[in-house]
Amino acid sequence: MMDMRFLEDLLDAALRQTPGASDILLSPGSPVMASVAGELRPVTGGLPDMLTEADTAAMARALLEEKPHAKADHAATGSADLALALPSGVRLRANVFLRLGATAMVFRRLPEAIPSAESLGLPRLVTEAAAALDGLVIVAGATGSGKSTTLAALIDLINQTRAVHVVTLEDPVEYLHPPKRAIVSQRELGPDFQDFAGGVRAAMRQAPRVILVGEVRDRETAEAALRAAETGHLVFCTVHATDCGGLVSRLAGLFEPAEERSARAALAGCLRLAVAQRLVPTVDGSRAAVFEVMAPTLRVREMIVHGETGEATFSEVVAQGKAHGMQSFASSLGRLLLGGRISEETVSLYAPDRATAVRIIDAVRAAAGKKDGDAPLKLELDRR
User: Fold this and answer.
1) Beta carbons within 8 Å of 16's beta carbon, 6+ residues apart
2) pLDDT digits (tens, 9 = 90+) for 106-136
3) What Pfam families does the annotation carry (predicted)?
4) Domains in the chain and their CATH numbers?
């Protein structure tokens, strides 16, 4: 019988056989597959040679029975996210989904320790945001771009340095934050609260200094997050957008046209920092984050209220904002290339366009050619 114990044993066995695996994929018509350095490989030692539709459906039912909220999501949308702790102590983030009417599952291994801001290479303005007293810090990126990990590192930094109450609203809870200097009250969508907007409103009655909103998906959540930031709380949240300009458009677009101007004004008034990130492959087979960082200068606030124009876009303002600590994706890619962590091919693949890729590669080659002894290399890609 493929019950929860069977699934846990299968996952433990797969992870033991592939210690470098980041993900385990259970899909009908295939053996158990592990993703190692971005490539799938079969895991067959003592495991089923081939999973059937009945196998994956039975394991998914066992998993979802323990998570009623995820079960409801799966029934309504065909997919569900949840967290899972194996008897071995390994924590996983799971996604259960339908494809061609059959059930498949992906399990991502979560690090046992929360990565530090330094190990993630977070830019200076991002780590400094953890010391802010109030305002809104927004982290944007596609699914799987590392947003949750960045926020976990920032919450851990607050936990280490500030004696405050932090309330997190997550779907699902991924990283655990034991008490250090702070108390971190972690709440999970479903078991602990029913929707993000209601969770934010409830959090404001729980005497927090810091609130983390796992994802801003709708107008009600955006409005609640803005209200919390305007009333003296430091609010961290994520949105699905590819860059800082898209982040502003995404949030503004959640509101009705009659409300958008006031929503933009509220965002301009309380924004503490906007960050967008992407993951790129490194030369050692792992992945590293590249960042776009936008500080709320007067010009940025005006553009949030009035929108981009043909004369100025958010990406151009970021590229010109080095004096304010801003950073473009191009600059971030250049630093990784200069440090030998990524290849020129990766720059060509992930730069915004070919001209930018050529500019990054030429700048790094020039900087490397000017190296004098052990003097640090400097890379000038963004304009002051």
Assistant:
1) none
2) 999 988 889 999 999 999 999 999 999 999 9
3) T2SSE
4) 4-109 (3.30.450.90), 117-283+295-308 (3.40.50.300)
